[in-house]
Amino acid sequence: MERLRRNELGMDRISSLPDSVLVHILSFLPTHEAVKTTFISKKWKFLWTQIPVLDLDEFTFCDERSMVELYNALETGRYFLSSMRLDRQRKRFADFVDRALLHHDIESIRQIQLSFCYHEDYEFTSRVDQWIRFAIASNATALELNFASRSPSRDPRIEGCYELPHCPLPQSLKFLRLNFCEFRPLRHGSFDHLEIVELLQAKLPDGSVQDLISNCPCLESLHLLSCCVPHHLVISAPESELKCLLLDSCSSYEMNGIVYKYEIDAPKLQHFKFVGMMLHEFSVKRLRHLVEAHLDVRQNFISQMHCSMLTELLKDLGHASCLSLSSWCLQVLSFKDEIHVNHEIALSSLHRLNNLTVQTRLDSFDLLGLACLLRSSPNLEFLTIDIDNHKDLNLEYLDHPMLPNARHFDEMSFWENQSSPFQCLAKLEKVTINDFSGQDNEMGLVKFLLKNCLVLKEMSIRYVIFQPVSTISGRGIDREHLEFLQAQLDITQELLTFPRVSTCAQVFCS
Q1: Which of 130, 139, 183, 356 has its CA 20 to 30 A from that of 496?
Q2: Which positions ≥6 away from 38 have C-beta within 8 Å?
Q3: 340-375 burial, b if ≥16 CB within 10 A, otherwise e?
Q4: F-box domain: which residues (predicted)?
Q5: pLDDT value at position 288?
Q6: How far apart are CA 237 and CA 222, in angstroms?
């Protein structure tokens, strides 16, 4: 009896907490879990209706097997062949959303997250519009609408993505994330307080991006990931507060899905990242406040036009103090020596760069470009080398007449044979090398840096991760792993024998 009384007192302590505290606690739970607290007592019955965060995720109502079945059906065009089990689970979710939105106090909502796998023949499509209108009618400051659920990839060019209802979005909105939908900003009024926009797998008709920027006076961050855009993408924001721009793997709904031309004018931009193909024209203007730039260009051919375009682009990014480049960029900068000299003159504007990250194979197709960048960055303090030993070479242009001849190119002695000076060696303080395997070209670079970096404080070398070749289980793989570790130990011992000009330089291997 005494134990029961103590339990009752414990329950009373929780129940005696102010409603605002209990609501705050419930806000950390997924909505479907918060709703279950209505059965605790009368006091708890309506508390969940006050939580400021609505998190409605179809995945919590469908088992993983059912969702895999759904994604496979979408990929194969057999959506109508879904099982009765999956249909029941999806109906349970739709019914739950209906009830949750019906009973929830719309005035208390500050954040809405709705995630489900949309299909144009979805049985509950008529309900979807009602759900979205409810979200739009709220005073939410953050709105996340994911119509792809957890599907790894859905192409808005091929599949019918969801089109938002023609009505204004909440004026209070500060953060907007849309996944797998068609977005036409002019249909949703102005966004006076919107600061961050993330669009994933979204279809953006001609002019939509520019309309968004024009109607968002407070927009600071814009992310376009795997979006469907015009073949000529213009982002003109001369008066905008835009500080962060990410363009990642976008394609066009015209001309075979290729975006041929990018034009960016954003004077207040501080962070810029581009991932994808760089074709006919890529121009950025007036990036006087740029701090960080990331170029991950992925294509399998090089032309003289690319050489000029990339050089001009790097000049435009010259205000950045932090720069990251893919292997393709180094290969473009590794064109024939007479053009290479012009690059170094043109890239002299990289005098503000103090942090450089490059992805490279450290082979004859990258080394000239890497040397060019180092010569063009006299104030470099931090250098990160991400060695790419696993990807296939871009065979389509390895025999290009303007690329160096690999058969007559000594990668091991390349650095020692350089005649032009590297001013950055007087300021370089930290070097990080990732996926190191101890090849001759890698050892040559380490030896050169240790021997010539006057103020080097730290060199961090991270070995490539062990990947067993043997398919034999048990001792076979164990023995292979031991041999791998022994090879790393031998390489480490050799590295530690390399002479160092800096008396405070330390080498760490892991």
Answers
A1: 356
A2: 44, 45, 46, 48
A3: beebbebbeebebbbbbbbbbbbbbbbbbbbbbbbb
A4: 11-47
A5: 86
A6: 12
Nearest to 240, CA basis, from 260, 263, 269, 262: 269
Phi and psi of 140, rounded to 5°? -65, 145
Task: Say if residues 115 and 59 touch (Cβ distance below 8 Å).
Answer: yes
d(CA 15, CA 119): 44
**Last residue in a domain, options 102, 131, 152:** 152
Query: Reading across the β-sheet that carries 281-285, which strands appear in turn?
Result: 232-236, 261-265, 281-285
Token pair in block for residue 427? 């300021």
User: 245 lies in a domain?
Assistant: no
Sign of torsion, CA 12 13 17 19? negative
d(CA 480, CA 500): 33
Alpha-carbon dihedral 475, 478, 483, 488, rounded to 10 degrees? 180
Rounded Cα distance, 380 and 354, in Å: 4
Query: What would the two tokens of residue 71 be?
Result: 């994604």
User: To which H or E segment does residue 476 belong?
Assistant: helix 475-495
Q: Is the pLDDT of residue 395 over 60?
A: no
Phi, psi of 139 (to 5 degrees): -105, 30
CB 201 within 8 A of CB 153: yes
User: Which CATH number is 464's domain given?
Assistant: 3.80.10
Q: What is the pLDDT of residue 314?
A: 85
How confident is residue 396, by pLDDT bands cut at 50, 70 and 90? very low
Kindly list the distances between the CA atom of residue 445 and the CA atoms of 98, 414, 428, 449, 495, in Å, as whole numbers in the listed order.
Answer: 63, 9, 14, 6, 11
Name the token pair of 286.
Answer: 């007036």
The total of other beta-carbon atoms located within 10 Å of residue 4's CB is 8
| Count of structural domains, the chain | 2
C-alpha neighbours within 13 Å on the C-beta side of residue 135: 27
User: DSSP character for 117?
Assistant: B
Domain C-terminal end among 152, 175, 195: 152
Residues whose CB is less than 8 angstroms from the CB of residue 122 and which lie 6 or more positions away in sequence, other chains included: 128
Distance CA 186, CA 90 (A): 32
